[in-house]
């Protein structure tokens, strides 16, 4: 975006149930001089999940899918998605992001988590 974005957003609300959603709307901006609005929708995919990431077993995981949406005035268009797994007491242990439609996918897995 052409102008800086300075906004607090809700990344995770652990009080919400599976399938709950929330949306963060950003102030109007421009991309290459063209007016645009941007928002992020979040969906809780799972709560209390277990998984093994990089040979480490985690429990009490909340899985969240974020969809990044732009609108140049012709309707909302998803341009990217990201799935992040948060393990209680550890933080982000896994993330998968891709563009929409999918042409590239990036996966990041925690190999060592230490809370100081």
Topology of helices and strands:
Elements: E1 21-25, E2 29-31, E3 34-53, E4 56-71, E5 77-87, E6 91-99, E7 105-109
Antiparallel strand pairs: 1-3, 2-3, 3-4, 4-5, 5-6, 6-7
Name the poorly predicted regions.
none
Individual helix count? 0
- What fraction strand? over 45%
SSE pattern, N- to C-terminal: EEEEEEE
Number of strands: 7
Radius of gyration: 16 Å
Describe the largest sheet: 7 strands, antiparallel
Helix-and-strand structural type: mainly beta
Distance between the termini: 35 Å
What would the average pLDDT be, to the nearest integer?
93
Name the shape in a single word.
Answer: elongated
Report what the structure shows.
By secondary structure, this protein is mainly β. The protein is 0% helix and 59% strand. It has no helices and seven strands. Strands 1, 2, 3, 4, 5, 6 and 7 form a seven-stranded antiparallel β-sheet that branches. A hairpin with a 5-residue loop joins strand 4 and strand 5. It is elongated and about 45 Å long. It starts with 20 loop residues before the first strand and ends in a 7-residue tail after the last strand. The mean pLDDT is 93.
Question: Any key phrases for this structure?
Answer:
116 residues, mainly beta, seven-stranded antiparallel sheet, 7 strands, 0% helix
């Amino acid at each position: 975006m052409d102008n800086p974005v300075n906004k607090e957003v809700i990344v995770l609300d652990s009080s919400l149930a599976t399938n709950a959603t929330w949306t963060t709307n950003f102030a109007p901006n421009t991309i290459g001089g063209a007016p645009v609005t941007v928002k992020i929708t979040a969906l809780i995919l799972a709560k209390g999940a277990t998984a093994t990431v990089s040979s480490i077993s985690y429990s009490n995981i909340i899985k969240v899918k974020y969809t990044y949406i732009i609108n140049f005035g012709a309707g909302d268009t998803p341009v990217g998605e990201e799935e992040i797994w948060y393990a209680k007491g550890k933080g982000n242990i896994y993330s998968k992001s891709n563009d929409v439609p999918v042409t590239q996918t990036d996966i990041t897995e925690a190999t060592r988590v230490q809370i100081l």
